[in-house]
Structure formats: structure tokens, C-alpha cells
Amino acid sequence: MSDRVAFTCNDTPVEVEVAPGESLLSVLRERLGLDSVKDGCAPQGQCGCCTVLVDGEARVACVTPAERVSGRSVTTVEGVAEPTRTALADAFVATGGSQCGFCTPGIAMRAASLLARGRTSRVDLDRALAAHLCRCTGWRTVYDAIDRAAAPGDVDTVGERDLDAAASRAALEGGVGQAVGPDVVLGHRPFADDVAPRDALVAVPRPPGSDAPAVAAAGHWWVLGETLFDARAAAGKVQGRRTSVADAPPLTPPPLPGDGVRLATSWVEPAYLEPDASWCEPEGEPFTPLANGGAFGGKTTSIAPLAARELAAATGRPVRVVFAREDVVRLGAKRPPIAASAAVFLNERVVKIKGMRAGTFGPVVLPYALDVQRSWREVALAGPPVGELRAPWAEEHVLVEGALDAVGADRSQLVHDARSASVLLDSCAREPGGALAGARVELDVRGALASVSVRVAAGDPLDDVVLRSYAIGAAHMALGWVLSESIAVDPQSGEVHDLTIRSFGIVRPRHMPAVDVSIVDDAGPPLPRASDAVFAAVAGATWNAVARAEGARPESFPARLSRAATAIRR
């Protein structure tokens, strides 16, 4: 059975047929074609990507039953009045408050509600942004954007920047093409599922324990339906939960001679906001799941495109493949655990690293005049896929920085060239492609995060705003990796137990400290992935800062027992 629901959408009366239990998000995207409203976690209601206004109040559409908006007014980003819409779009572009852009329309809708009510104090923003997740920007540029939109005279006009150069820097950081401009902020830069034909068959992964009829493709079972709502209902999709199972690191560091450091890390979810999606015509090429962002390498091995191609060939119809958040967590690549010890021998100018890892890491290039003697043993762990995640060499940088800190080494005597010296702070990292970053992390008297300083050398920056935004985003991710991020994985079955956005441990907006980014003069062509170097440098600086504040070095990530991590969890 179905019902008809009438409401006003962006000042236009609409009447749609809805299935029992169908959400407002489903109606807006699937029935009305408003793809600016994004589905990042439905129906967890935890990422904020689908935020709209209902009678002027911000609401998360994925947990709003469609029948509840009967007779009411719904506003998406397309219906936001001028000049507010332009002010928000320009402000987010001017500050770098949007990167891939998947989360930004929802944040912009929340901001529009705040601006209409004059509620833009820091306390107001902290409270409002708690309903959202942005994995890319590190939040500071989002705050800056809303501040600018609240004072339109201070907003830089988009025309003052070369947005093609900005897009080039974004592509160098993300590893795939990425646009920069107001259309990205307003949700009009299409992602894979935004452009899929709505008359296509929809395929969703069959969840564990389901006996729904399914078709095999790309090494997995897929449940098909005429609509996304039908496919998920047929699959018996159950909303994921946060587990009480411990997420302790699964490996133990081996002993190492000398005054060394020990580190064991846990499984970490990349937490890109756009769930894997693709679509394909019979005998066609599948649409990329990387339409406007690199997903930190987490989608490099996604099975969605192959499944779309195989299912289209098997059915003779266009097929949309759409992951739910729970599917992303179960099937997507993770940052794998390591357990290692490291010691520095200054008289020999050598660092010795010995450890175990659950994945293959790339070669580390040190910014110091030190040799690395490494002995890694790859181990097979039951768990999710590893894939080809970004900055897989950061673990060695962190171990080197910890070992140097443990012996009180003077890093200024170890940097081997002027470029390294130009970025040197408390921690320094070199990306294999040549970009450099230095970082310092300050804790307050309570041991909580106070500030982060970053210096970055990436050749021609092309666009300072984008490079700064990526650096802050990398700092945000590094702080989470060291202090709070992990997911619980069953050591026997490899099953992932933490299936919700909020269970990943990502640093929330109000806990993100100020980040000062200095882009140093660095002659030469633009260098890629400077943000990877920032990630490694900030992670090393954070580990050392916590060690100094606590009087003892945490031997595992996340360092949940530290005061900095405790403050984040409050």
C-alpha cells in the first residue's frame, strides 16, 4: 500500500506517492530529483548531509518520515533565498570550507537556518555543527565560511581567484579530478548516484544474515529492486549499531634493543562521506565512484563499478549500485593495524624499525640525514579489506619522530637540506612525491588540544586557499588517528562491529583546535599530496606532545587514556 503526501517544496506545491515508512530524503532524491540533498548515512541520521528546512527549521531528512511533512513547507538548497544562497556559496569557496562537497549542501542549509535567526556565535555554531560530519576540511574553514556569510561585506568574491588553478591543487591533493566553485558548495557537482538514471534497476549488497533472493556479481551477492527503497526493503537492511566490543589493537610490538618506542594501532575507517556508488548501461562503461574527490584512496578498490557492469550485462538493463553506510564499513578498505618498535642511534645516524603490519606500506622518505633499517613482517589478520589508502607510510614517520623525541634529539642538526629546514617544527615529514611538512601541537594546562601549527612546502601552491584547507583537513584526520579513531573488528571472524558514523571516533567540530598554516616559499613545479606530509607530521607531533604532557608515551593509537583524548570524548 502507498499514500499520497502533499507539501510545498521550494515554494512549489507537490503531491507524491510514498511507500509506508519512506523517508523525506527518499522522496526528495528519488521522486523529485533534488540531488543536492545527499545520502551519507541513511537512516542513521548522524552525518547531516541530507539536512533541509521544514517550516524553516533544520531537519535531517533521512530520519524524517515523508508523511510528517504533509501540509508543510520543505526547503532544499535550491530554495534558499537570495542573497543568502550566494553569500554562503561564495563564503565556502573563499575559505576552502568545501572540498569534495558531498557534505556541504547540508551544512549550508544548517547555516542558512542559523543566519535567518541571527544565531552565529561560536556556541551556536558548535551546537549546530555537532549534527554534521565533514571528513575533508577539518572544520576550521567551515567556521570561517559561516562567519563570512554572516558579514557579507567581508566575503571575498569568487572572481578574485583562479578557480582552475584551485581545482588543479585540489586534484593534486586528492589524486583525482576535483572542481572548485559555488556549484560544488550548493550540491550541483554531480556524484555517481546523482546522475544515475532513475528508471534503472537498483542493486544493494545483501547484508549478513539475509536470505533475500540475490544475484552474484563482483564476488558478492546483490539484491535488486525497481527503486532504492524497494531494494533495501527486500534486502532486509538493518540500521547499523555502535558496539560495546573492545577495539584494542590486534598486534603486539616486538622488542627492540636500545631506548626505543613502541606503537600498536587499530583498524581505522577512512569515513569518506559519499558511499560507494556506480551505474552502468548494458555493454557500457561503469560510472566512476570518484566523481569529485579521491576518498583518501578508500575507493580505489571499490567493487561498485565492476558489480554495476556485471549486473547490467546479466539483466540487460541499466543498473545502479548503491551502498548504504553499513555496506561501506563492511566492504570498504580500512587503514590496517601495525605493531612496531623503533629506536634511533644518533652516533650511527640510523633508525631501526621492527614490526608487523596487516597491509603493504610504501617506502618512507625521511627529511633527516638518517638511514632507516626496517624489518617488517606482513601478517594475515581476519578483518576488512586493506585497499590502497593514502599516506600508508605515515606509520614509519611517526615511529621515527617518537624515537627522536625519546632520546631528545636536536632535529635541526639532522635535517639534510634547506627545504627540510624551512618547514622544521617539532615534527617533519616528506611525502614520497617530494612535498614537505612540519608540525607543532600544543596542549593546554589540562592536557587537552589547544592549537596546531603547520608549515608546508609543496612547490608552486597554485592556490593558497585550497592548500590550506587540505592541510587543516589532514591535521584533523591525524589528531583523530592518534587520539580517538578506531573501529572494533572481531579477531576471529573479521566482522566489523562499529557500523555508525558516530562510532568511528572522528574529532567533532567543537574539539578541533585552531590550526595555523604557513605555506613556505618553495621554488619549482607544484608537488602532489602535500596534505599527506601534513598528516604524518601532525600525527608525529601529537604523539610527542601527549608523551610530554602525560610524562609517559602512549603505546597504542588511539591514545584513549590520554587527557587530550578524554577531552575529545566529553
Highest-level CATH class of the largest domain: Alpha Beta
How many domain units? 4
In the CATH hierarchy, the architecture of the largest domain is 2-Layer Sandwich
The N- and C-terminal alpha carbons lie at a distance of: 45 Å
Strand order of the largest sheet: 2-1-5-3-4
Would you summarize the structure shown here?
With 570 residues, the chain is of the alpha/beta class. It has helices at residues 24-31, 84-95, 104-117, 122-129, 140-150, 163-174, 182-185, 228-235, 304-315, 325-331, 394-406, 418-423, 464-483, 530-550, 563-569, and strands at 3-9, 12-18, 51-54, 57-60, 73-75, 201-205, 215-217, 220-225, 261-265, 277-280, 319-322, 338-345, 350-357, 371-378, 427-430, 436-443, 449-457, 514-519, 556-557. It is globular.
Task: Give a description of the structure.
The chain is of the alpha/beta class. It folds into 4 domains: 3-79, Ubiquitin-like (UB roll); 84-190, Orthogonal Bundle (DNA polymerase, domain 1), CATH 1.10.150.120; 194-238 and 276-322, no CATH class; 362-368 and 393-569, 2-Layer Sandwich (Aldehyde Oxidoreductase, domain 4), CATH 3.30.365. The protein is built from 15 helices and 19 strands. The chain has helices at 24-31, 84-95, 104-117, 122-129, 140-150, 163-174, 182-185, 228-235, 304-315, 325-331, 394-406, 418-423, 464-483, 530-550, 563-569, and strands spanning 3-9, 12-18, 51-54, 57-60, 73-75, 201-205, 215-217, 220-225, 261-265, 277-280, 319-322, 338-345, 350-357, 371-378, 427-430, 436-443, 449-457, 514-519, 556-557. The strands form 4 sheets. A 5-stranded mixed β-sheet has the order 2-1-5-3-4, sandwiched between helices. A hairpin with a 2-residue loop joins strand 3 (51-54) and strand 4 (57-60). Helix 2 packs across helix 3 and helix 6 (163-174) packs parallel to helix 13. It is globular, with a radius of gyration of 24 Å.
